[in-house]
Amino acid sequence: MTGYFGYHLVQGDYGLVSWLKLSHEIEETKAELDQVSGEREALERRVSLLRPESLDRDMIEERARVTLGFAHQNDAVVISPTP
User: Fold this and answer.
1) pLDDT class of 2 with cuts at 50, 70, 90
2) pLDDT over 90 (residue 40)
3) Secondary structure letter of residue 15 according to DSSP
4) Tens digit of each residue's pLDDT (9 = 90 or more) over 21-36
């Protein structure tokens, strides 16, 4: 009887092994949440620059050039991936 309960204490659905797996999943999910939250904040900052109340001429010009594929003759073009 002790062996039965001992086995389920370690290997059961609510045992120590399951608890360790869940703890590891929680840590991974928290790390992913932190990363996604940072990306969201960066996007929100960029979007706030395009709102009608606070238009940033440089941001509008940048978006127009990227979208239309235009640049001035004397411009140095640096292509970077969009977040």
Assistant:
1) confident
2) yes
3) S
4) 999 999 999 999 999 9
Sorted by sequence, the CB contacts under 8 Å of residue 12 that are 6+ apart come out as 18
Provide the residue range defining the domain that includes 49. Answer: 2-68
Contacts 24+ apart (CB under 8 A), 42-48: 42/83, 43/83, 46/83
pTM of the model: 0.52
- Rounded to 5 degrees, what are φ and ψ at 22? -65, -40
DSSP state of 43: H
Overall domain count for the chain? 1
Residues 63/50, Cβ–Cβ less than 8 Å: yes
- Residue 60 maps to a domain: yes
The two tokens of residue 39 are 């990306």
Which candidate, 35, 64, 70, 63, places its Cα nearest to that of 47?
63
